[in-house]
Amino acid sequence: MDIKSIIRKKRDSNELTKEEIKYFVGKLTKGEITDAQAGAVLSYICTNGLTEDEILNFSVSMAESGDMVDFSDITKNIVDKHATGGVGDKATILLMPILASLGMPVAKVSSRGYGISGGTIDKLESIPGFTTDLTIEEFKENVRRIDVSIMNQGLNLAPAESKIYRLRNETACENSVPIIAASLMSLKIATGSKKIVFDISFGKGTYISNKNEAKRLAKLLVRLGKSLQKEVACVITNMNQPIGYSIGHNLEIKETIMALKGVMAEDLEEVVETLGSVMISLASDKKDLNENAKLIKEAIKSGKAYEKFKEMVRTQHGDVKYIEKPELFKEAKYCMPVLSTEDGVVESIDADMVGSIAVYLGAGRMKDEKKVNKTAGITISKKVGDNVKVGETLAYVYTDDKEKVSGTTQNLIDAFKFTTKKVSEKSKIIEIIK
Predict the structure, then answer these.
(1) Secondary structure letter of residue 363 according to DSSP
(2) CA neighbor of 213 nearest in space, from 232, 244, 239
(3) 8 Å CB contact between 56 and 178
(4) What residues contact 97, with CB distance under 8 A and at least 6 apart?
């Protein structure tokens, strides 16, 4: 058995055995094959696909490439939420304290951002002192004590998945449903998750281009979950504009704080309540999603979710003063309004373009090693369905690089599409698949 025979096998659309997949993943983890060889395997998978047995074996092998977490000594009802990515998506950060404040343990393993998909780890580490580089025992102890914790995948949890995540982006395989499914399930196996809700977004600014592909991935994840004795539900969401108002690390954390105080964009609120309601239904005997949504509203209204967020920040060594006084967060050197050049109603906002502009401003990375500028980003002033007049502010751009300020203005204007007709913003929730 050697890597070239595996490459040839996938090139010729043949099925890899469990042993061949384990060999490939093991060699990748140890750095004993080149990026070119690994990229070739992923490219042929992207072109020719995988059987469900192959996806299952990839999931298990990637999970077993590093440490494994076992929460069985704490509770069997830990629920996890994972998103396929979305521009401005801070739902995960909101849901952790909300669910924990309702007495439902949340253990989250996440990664740093890559490309236009902002990482939950990067966003939380915008809070001075906040650390996610926890040992497994520290991670478990946090969940045991306060019902919530988040850990950086970059230590030794599913290291093969982390490498494949990078390579699939670099080799234009980011939208391969089999690779995405195997990556997602490997993380859930490694972290011991038994109950999982996947937020699968489709549209511009995501890896999934259309609703049919999103449904295909959702149904595949549910089937894989059953094979692995895991309870899986998928919520399909439409990414027809960035989620909420902000894109960028400090900006999104400040929006998160406001949301936990009850000031939340309608689209973000809908996503949070739907995902949270499904998570509650998996973690408890509360199966009525409408009633669960009320519990979430009450957790926010009462301040319990906000207080739990502060407890989470404090436990992971973050400076709570920044949560209590968001104005303490460092701001970008330059902030410039982007003004509309036409009248009309906002019909759509190209999330992919907005995300790319945010990366250009410094809020994202295109290489693993590159640091992000936590102050850079964009805030959206007008959302889909809003009326706009010439000269009104569509958005603000934030950056420390003066040369980038004016260069982004026209591109950001181009991300907004206008109509003369009335626009009713469509629900972001398309379907729930269990």
Answers:
(1) I
(2) 239
(3) no
(4) 148, 260, 305, 306, 308, 309, 311, 312
**Are 200 and 223 in the same domain?**
yes
**Is 118 in the same domain as 137?**
yes
The two structure tokens encoding residue 251:
């900006």
CATH code assigned at 370: 3.90.1170.30
Residue 183 in any domain: the answer is no
Q: What is the pTM of this model?
A: 0.90
Give me the helix-helix angle, 304-315 and 136-146, nearest 10°: 150
- Top-confidence residue, 221 or 365: 221
Which one, of 356, 350, 366, 349, lies nearest residue 408 by Cα? 356
Tens-digit pLDDT profile for residues 327-381 = 999 999 999 999 999 999 999 999 989 988 998 998 876 555 467 789 999 999 9
256's CB contacts (< 8 A; 6+ apart) are: 90, 93, 94, 123, 309
CA dihedral 149, 135, 153, 330 (to 10 degrees): 60
Measured distance CA(94)–CA(277) in Å, rounded:
13
Find the helix or strand (DSSP H, E) in which 356 lies.
helix 351-358
Strands 387-388 and 344-349, sheet pairing: antiparallel
> What order of strands is seen across the sheet that includes strand 79-83?
79-83, 195-202, 231-238, 429-433
Which domain, by its residues, includes 305?
Answer: 79-156+193-324
Same-domain check for residues 129 and 223: yes
d(CA 7, CA 19) in angstroms, rounded, equals: 14
Per residue in 141-178, pLDDT (tens digit) is 999 999 999 988 765 778 898 889 889 888 888 889 99
For the stretch 295-309, pLDDT in tens is: 999 999 999 999 999
Question: Please, are residues 201 and 239 in contact by the beta-carbon 8 Å criterion?
Answer: yes
